[in-house]
Amino acid sequence: MKNNSLYFFFLLFIQIGFAQNNLQWQGYFSYSEIKGVSGSANTVFAASENALFSKNSSNNIIKTTNTVDGLSGQTISSIYHSVKFNKTIIGYENGLIIVINEADGSMLKVVDIISKQLPSEIKKVNHFFEHEGFAYVSCDFGIVQFNLATMQFGDTYFIGDNGAELKVNQTAVHNGFIFAATINGIRKATITNQNLIDFNQWSIVASGNWLSVNTFGTELYAINTAGNINKFNAVSNSFVLIKQITPPFLYSSVAADHFTVTTLNTVYVFDEQMNVVRLINSNEIIESKPNFSCATIIAQTVFIGTKENGMITSPLSNTFNFEDITPIGPSRNNIFSLEASAKSLWAVYGFYPGNYNPYQSPQGFPSLYGISKFDYTTWLNIPTSEVLGARALSNVAINPNNNDDVYISSFFSGLLKIENDKPTKLFTPQNTAPNGLQSIEVAVAPNDIRINNPVFDKEGNLWLTNNLVEKALKVLKTNGQWQSISFATVLPELTNYGGLVIDKNNTKWAASRRGVVGYNEKGGVLKLITEGSEKGNLPSPDVRSVAVDNKSQLWIGTNKGLRVLSNVGNYQTEGQITANPIIILDDNLAQELLYEQFITDIEVDGANNKWIGTADSGLFFVSPNGQETKYHFTINNSPLPSNTINDITINSVTGEVFIATAKGLISFKGTSTAASEDLNNAFVYPNPVRPEYQGTVKIAGLLDKANVKITDVAGNLVYETTAQGGTIEWDTTAFGKYKVASGVYMIFISAQDGVETKVKKVMIIR
């Protein structure tokens, strides 16, 4: 297929960033998992999973940096701030290095380590140590020298036995020698030696597995996996045990006259005599009792990074005063599912893999996480302790008649109800009998209740799927009564269900691993669309997503491609319903749109465009009929932090498209809003249009297919178009020929049938 992607940049060793013009991206990243910390005299620099933030203690300004600003979506493994060069260096697990010039915010992407002819699994960047203008980069294969002035790599040191690759955790320079803490001993060499690429120039001064080596004051200290802190004795050329800490050791840092050592539950702060001047235990932080990941000291304040609770600070003086300085955001990056309304966005983190087995979560059991809500201003994170024990939270339904009434399905525990941001009830078989929820018929554990895809119909009833039971479709009526519908006549074998959608005829379309099941209460009609030319023509029976567009077409996403049912209105009249591929022409060759792609989600915007997420190929934005791929967003040409798209949702009022990936949440601020029912709320923005504004004028709150004409005060027509959805854009030119002059312009809006009209004005100042 022809590459219709919009490429924003090509980067090897050049300045990076996204000049999006009209492509407006916004990042909503989690800063809860702190990977590393560094600092200057008054600023802390912290790295989370794949984003950064800094806080200046002089003005308390917090600055965030993520993929929208030019960072990679890969996992960060190390961070270092050079005070001398005013540059922040970020190292990644895949070997990428990004250098940020703090003076102007520019970024440099360095791919030399990625390009090395080495196995990809040993390219991780572990640590940066600065000495006389060079950063010594500790990697899983050895040490790389990086010139902080020229931004160029120098030599690479393979210091293992006979010049083999050797994992280096950290380096330090002491009394004219460079020391390397490795998994196979501490090795040293003369720092001025011009032949350090020769492994013979490196000698072993201590055996064992060493995690850290630091110059502190006039001494050199190293820490091994046993939690032993050792001091180097130059006379004996060996390390001597002086203290022990409770392992596992995680992080060490030297700042001014303090040496900080971090373990999972303790932060030790030593003075130059190696006396403990502050000992912080995680249980002192009553609210969260976090697991620590790193720590450092800046201006008599201890900055503590945690694994799930962001960045916490405390005065160096021995107090129990702790402050959370983590930037607001969702509690985790790997959002499994999300749902937007006009008032808020909800996100959940439950997990099941492609085989729908919740026991295969990273936690080793059905996952237990909290819930996040974004009111388009700030985030509210409902902690794990408040979700009533509901595990594997999988999908969200927001009551269209009351946005404070939210239901979240659990793929292990039932259905969770949230009222006014508080989880209030967990629906299970015990409190919904006899026609309500059911445990799976072949239970792996007691009370294994796998609920998915809650959706409200236009009457306010809540429909959902109950996996691995015969009566797979459930409905919670507005009167509080439950009803169950069996799919056994079309699906005799028990199965799992993906998406669920309800069309304008009140037909329910349920995606399953055995096809799409359609159900309509009128006559209790059940039908199945599945694999095979005579059974529905799907490329695979494993259907993951379904969506009904503005022309009553059913779009069906499978693990092996896309199909479209031309008219859901044929459900009652046709026998076997058949879906068809979308055939496009590429260089005069007929090809199938999204052939063999694993489609994870399909969403329809206000202009009937389709946003299609995939398991490993990024995001496709296609025209209403699918014949034009407007954009194909990937990690290489957009701020997407991952090509794995978990879910998509659209704020129908603003047109903002939210994209949940495996590495973070971002949004595309489109203009394809849902059409209004009348023109009472039509508005123009910005108004007035000032000289410094470079964007377009938006006319929103329109009826679908409304006619919009723009004239000057003399009545001369300068622009005309027909709305596709609820918003149109005007580039302030006269039919694209030239910029219109300063003045007041009249906007005449009329419905397609001409019955309803509205007149607006916009002032343009050049």
Report what the structure shows.
The protein is an all-beta fold and 766 residues long. Among the domains are: 108-324, YVTN repeat-like/Quinoprotein amine dehydrogenase (Methylamine Dehydrogenase, Chain H, 7 Propeller), CATH 2.130.10.10; 333-456, no CATH class; 683-764, Outer membrane usher protein (Immunoglobulin-like). The chain contains two helices and 65 strands. The strands form 17 sheets. The protein has a five-stranded antiparallel beta sheet, with no helix packed on it. The two termini are 44 Å apart. The model is unreliable at 1-22 (pLDDT under 50). This is Putative secreted protein (Por secretion system target).
The spatial strand order of the largest sheet comes to: 1-10-9-8-7
The gross shape turns out to be globular
Portion of residues within helices? under 10%
Strand content: over 45%
What would you call the structural class? mainly beta
Number of helical elements: 2
- What's the CATH topology name of the domain at 108-324? Methylamine Dehydrogenase, Chain H
The poorly predicted ranges are 1-22
Fourth-tier CATH superfamily name of the domain at 108-324: YVTN repeat-like/Quinoprotein amine dehydrogenase
Amino- and carboxy-terminal Cα gap: 44 Å
CATH class of the domain at 108-324, please? Mainly Beta
In total, the number of strands is 65
Mean pLDDT: 92
Organism: Flavobacterium weaverense
Domain PorZ N-terminal beta-propeller: 44-203
Protein name: Putative secreted protein (Por secretion system target)
Keywords: Signal
